Amino acid sequence: MSLLAYKDKNRIEAGADEAGRGCLAGPVVAAAVILDPKHPIKGLDDSKKLSVKKRIALKLEIEKKAMAFAVCFVDHKTIDQINILNASFLAMENAIKALGVSPEFLLIDGHRFKTSLDIPFSCEIKGDARFMSIAAASILAKTNRDAYMQRIDLEYPSYAWKKNKGYPTLEHRKAVLDIGLSPYHRKSFQLKQKQLSLSL
Asked: Does a structural domain hold residue 5?
């Protein structure tokens, strides 16, 4: 199914999405994108469906051709303070605020959004597979977060973040049980209790 360029072509729409919500470590990262109808981008899709090579190529194209884009990080300490759902909302709100062009409407990936912004919005379930602007945001959020996790993997290679990007793979969970938590782990995720029970 081809993605939609907009929900209403007569207004400036920004798509927003986040990456890293289900991770045990690292930040949640959100992006907001306003695409330029004069400079279409082919191949946009949900970032999870794309190869690493394709995601990186599209990231560069989005940054070159979008009318406006912004990426914002909310770190693991803030996630622990306000919870992951609110941290995701905050990251998306900050990305929208950082746009160089003011959107008239927001397309938010998912089924919930809470914001102090005075901009109308709609929540779009699986929006990254339905709308081009949300797909573009998902690509920017994921590529920026993946690059960050690869950088901190150099500090703590035992957790294999270069491969798992902080997600709760068996290898990652086993490392937490064996060597404990790093300074980048989200302590509110009860890493050593139910979430890390291993069936070996």
From this structure: no
The two structure tokens encoding residue 18:
């986040």
pLDDT tens sequence across 143-167: 999 999 999 999 999 999 999 999 9
φ and ψ at residue 106, rounded to 5 degrees: -115, 135
> The dihedral of CA 121, 127, 132, 137: what is its sign?
positive
- Based on the fold, state whether residues 95 and 175 are members of the same structural domain: no
Pairing of strands 68-74, 28-34: antiparallel
Number of domains comprising the chain: 2
3 is a domain residue: no
Token pair 């560069």: residue: 60
The reply to whether 91 and 110 lie within a common domain is yes
> Within 13 A of 56's CA, how many CA atoms are on the CB side?
5
Model confidence band, residue 192 (pLDDT cutoffs 50, 70, 90): low
C-beta separation of 70 from 95 below 8 A: yes
Beta strands in 39-137 (DSSP E): 68-74, 105-109, 121-124
Whether 114 and 189 share a structural domain: no
Do 126 and 171 fall within a single domain? no
Domain encompassing residue 96: 13-153
Are residue 87 and residue 110 in the same domain, yes or no? yes
- How far is Cα 149 from Cα 166, in angstroms, rounded to an integer? 7
- pLDDT band with cut points at 50, 70 and 90 for residue 190: low
